Amino acid sequence: MKKLIYLDYAATTPVSNEVFKAMKIYFLKEYGNPSSLHLLGQKALKAIDFSRNNIKELTSADYFREIIFTSSATESNNLAIKGLATYYFFRLKLKPHIISSSIEHPSVLEVLKDLEKLGLIEYSLAKPEKTGLINIDNILNLIKENTILITLHYVNSELGIVQNIKELGKKLEEINKNRDIKIIFHTDAAQAPLTEDISIKNLRVDMMTLSSHKIYGPKGIACLYKKENIILERIISGSEQEFELRPGTENVPLIVGFSKALEMVVKNREKNRKYLEDLRNYFLQKLKEGKIAFDINGDINFTTPKILNLYFPQKTAQEILIYLDSKKIMVSPGMACKARALTPSYIMEEIYPHSDRAYKSVRFSFGLETKKKDLDYVVKALKKFLR
Fold first, then answer.
1. What number of other Cβ atoms are within 10 A of residue 118's Cβ?
2. Residue 337 annotated to the active site
3. d(CA 90, CA 70)
4. How far is CA 147 from CA 95, 117, 170, 186, 351, in A?
């Protein structure tokens, strides 16, 4: 097989034809600056308004102003956490306490470390269970009088574990009824929309991060849903775009593409989920039939079907990746932003301490273009290399 087999969709997806078509006009013809008062500027602003309202509807948000466009999920997470923490510290003169988990994306964990170094916050991290799930009670037991934020990812980018965001949201609503300082709930949902519900009303979240390039949209655009009554300090200084929270000329084509991509995955979520689940189960069956020694990392009963993380005791992840790459098979040891470091996954080490799984695990992530014949070829290659 000569074609490239891409199984790293959790790192990024290609832009779909429909999304590219929707964007194209704003690159070539409707290229005005949305802040300009002339016709081209107003057409660009109208496109942004339509896209913002579309995402508002798709997430079941209440108000147009609750959708804030950013350049990435990393920036959205920074805005949510830094924006809230600095508001409480500098405006309300309270040193806030934030709760998260030890298996969050670096755009959460590094923000918490940076804020603590500056003396602006204190924070606590809940540990995962063997399943990869974060026990809700363990999070709630970390709450203090000055706790102002809980931030927990929706779908883990390495293991595909789907956290019980809805249950935590419900419990926080009850807890907040008896608190003077309300606890705000943020979730990084960058990996979720292809297979999971992203209705903020169902999830009971106050802030939510979404990313375009995980859902067949362009790179360089994301958003933060922020409930209307939540006040954030902006983390970039400049003009008044994005309701004075994210200055800088808006990237109109990317915003349009993001909106279209989200519309398509929300519309087809159940269909996508079934397709990806069938692929994952087929792949596992073929691996078993090939008598390849492997184990599933995390509990498959709690995962999105688009991500499958496997432990191969025979070889290191680096050896497997190099071999598969030579066969034009693209996989990953874990999250893309850490892959080049060639260091063991801190997420795997948290879930499987004192184990070699962090060095010998590979993430396979499936996409809507993945075919069963592609997986047959991958199994054939693994069988040759691992047996």
1. 12
2. yes
3. 24
4. 9, 18, 17, 13, 26
The answer to whether 141 touches 181, Cβ cutoff 8 Å, is: no
d(CA 262, CA 51): 10
Q: What is the pLDDT of residues 259-315, one digit of tens each?
A: 999 999 999 999 999 999 999 999 999 999 999 999 999 999 999 999 999 999 999
Residue 73, token pair as written in the block: 């999920």
pLDDT tens track for 82-132: 999 999 999 999 999 999 999 999 999 999 999 999 999 999 999 999 999
Q: The tokens of 35 are what?
A: 């802040």
| Res. 202: pLDDT tops 70 | yes
The average confidence (pLDDT) of the chain is: 96
Query: Does pTM top 0.85 for this prediction?
Result: yes
pLDDT of 341 higher than 80: no
CA dist list (Å): 54 to 192, 262, 265: 18, 9, 13
Catalytic residue among 337, 342, 353, 355: 337
